[in-house]
Design a protein that fits this description.
heterodimer; A: alpha+beta; Enolase-like, domain 1; three-stranded antiparallel β-sheet; 5 strands; 33% strand; B: alpha/beta; BirA Bifunctional Protein, domain 2; three-stranded mixed β-sheet; 41% helix
Amino acid sequence: MGTCEVKARKGLIRATVDAKGGVIERALITGDFMLLPEDKVFDLERALLKVRLSRDDVERAVREALGGSTLIGCSYGDFVDAIMCAGEGS
Amino acid sequence: MLRVLLYETPDDPHMNLAFEEALPRAVGCGLSPATLRLWRNRRAVVIGYFQRAEEEVNLEEAERLGVAVVRRFTGGGAAYHDLGNINYAISLPAKGQVGETVNFIFSELIRAPVEALRSLGLEASVQNVNDIVVENRKVSGTAATISWRATFFHGAMLVSADLSALASVLKVPLKKLIDKGVSSVKYRVTNISSIRPGITVNQVAEALASSFARVLGYDGVKYDVPTSEELEIAETLYYHKYRERAWNLERTPHRDFREAEEEVKRICRA
């Protein structure tokens, strides 16, 4: 299990990722960022399960899960950075 | 006239937050008009929707000091509340696209607390999207949601709060402190009364009410009491969500509190 924090322009995104054999088994996205509608974050956590820990695959999962949401002061890239960093440290 | 509620349950922060969610729900389903609420907690830490209590709060210290931990329904960071802190919350019927509404919230609605402080002689401004600062120190954090067909914006304003208790119960990530160039949260936030000695929570509350009315184009304010439907929604949310450990400490999403959702829908339809 690895945890990584990324300071976005507004807010901190903290990812906690459990990856085994290069595949995400559990992901938790916490922090004081702002995103609407809020429950898309829980969709993202679910979408990351069984995703290969590669930047392309994680970015695709982030874009699909958070698609249509409004991010306030943060970007898809901030989420990808936090998830990759946490996954590589797990 | 802008409807203003002073309804608060300072000794029950879970009910305070349940009522906070009840208002946008009641406004969104047409039971209530646009409403500003001003309220306080006696002692609580209110964490954001995406936060985990153990990551944000020194739970042992909070328990020692009798500080309750309550999760709210908006994103953003943890806030320390005591009677020296005034909370403001505006609920409006939602209209327009989400992106436009977010822009309206953080460029128009946020002017209300800023201009309230200016009316009291303080040089307040917005910094970093949603923080309100005076003399480069944060005096109010704000957050918002567009949910349940309502536009909702709220904030907590430090007037004469116990900043030592704030610093001892809140865990602030090192990255945030480095980013702000300070070594402790104490040096990043301040009380309005430290800048303007003698100022009271009541004076700030009156200034907030007038300012929200002005910014929203109302002629003035009309103080009111909660309706039976607003209280019924709040009690439903309290019993089925806000007093639950799963909500406050385990970061469970709204949709998992099915009884609360179904019961609120029933009240809205009645």
